[in-house]
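hey can u check if this looks right to u? its 403 residues, i copy pasted from the old doc so theres a chance i mangled smth
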Amino acid sequence: MSIVVQKYGGTSVADVQKLRQVAERVMHTHRKGHQVVVVVSAMGDTTDELLAMAKRVSPNPERRELDMLLSAGERISMALLSMAIRELGGDAISFTGSQSGIITNDRHVDARIIEVRPFRVQDALAQGKIVVIAGFQGVSYKKEVTTLGRGGSDTTAVAMAAALDAEYCEICSDVDGVYSADPRVVAAARRIGSLSYEETQEMAEAGAKVLNAQAVEFAKEKGIALYARATSGPLPGPDPSSDGTVVRRNPPRMPGTVVGVASERDVLLLTSDAPPAELLTLLDDCGVAGKQLHVASGLTTLVISRENLHDEPRVRATLERRLDGRARLVDGLAAVSVIGAGINATYRNIRSGSEALAAAGIQPDDLATSSFRITWMIPRGRTDEAVRLLHRHFIEAEQPLLP
């Protein structure tokens, strides 16, 4: 009997009635002959409400206590969903992240999974039970409760699917797949039927509210197919991409094609002429995660997501005190990216994207690339305009394929 892992988040678990609908879908999967593991996010805006409550108590809550607080949201969801499944005749049992064997490093608020020991989950499945797991959380090797950061429930689901050698992993939400851009910004955004692991990772890293980047990393390592689909949609059939997005190796697409445009609105650009080792040690001491690191000719630049800057005033003060003015944080910027396999095999896409932005009077402050992504740092106030422009230029218009 194959194992299927399903993750439910977003508004699909916003209230008790929607939890009942999730329970019905879980039972339908179970009746088709699968062993089912379900990972749930917190209900509705619970996490935001708990965070707001913490901020009213303390403007800069201690990270350990924040994890203790925020992890409660998923525990509420898992217990209620387990009850709902039982009401439908299913034999369900709920586990927290630690009970299900999610082992993380010792970072609070944005921990990373380092190992999964799913012994209790395997025992419960062998007894014919449906297992419901609290997403977004784990336990460190120091026995501390940790949370996994934005999109952490996706990571829980895929890491568990990998550990259990599941047939596939469904990521279910109120959205019926991954789109070429945020439909709230780009009316002409298209659902993407198939993506590669690398494209999906790059879209997540670039700010798209799609699958979590670490989750895709786990799936890629184990070769697990990911299905992003709406909770209200059907179970995967002969053509999974017909009513969702399937993430797998080597999707059927010519290299050089831009598949998506993503943006991250609230980023900072750190520049410093301090010794790189000294700067990076300081950032580690402050718990600041960054991306797009460049070190050249004595100058270090680093892009930082503001959501990863949990105590910005303290970080700014520490930079000033320990580096004596040799580092500065540039605000007012956003990152806009185009993503696709092989898009940087030539400079064609970089040139045409830069020319399109320049023609609209948008002057980038910085440009960075990877094998699957081109990112322009632009003025924050022009983010949506730039996303719509690049979507028209690369996706709505016919693209020349690379030779």
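The chain is about 35% helix and 25% strand.
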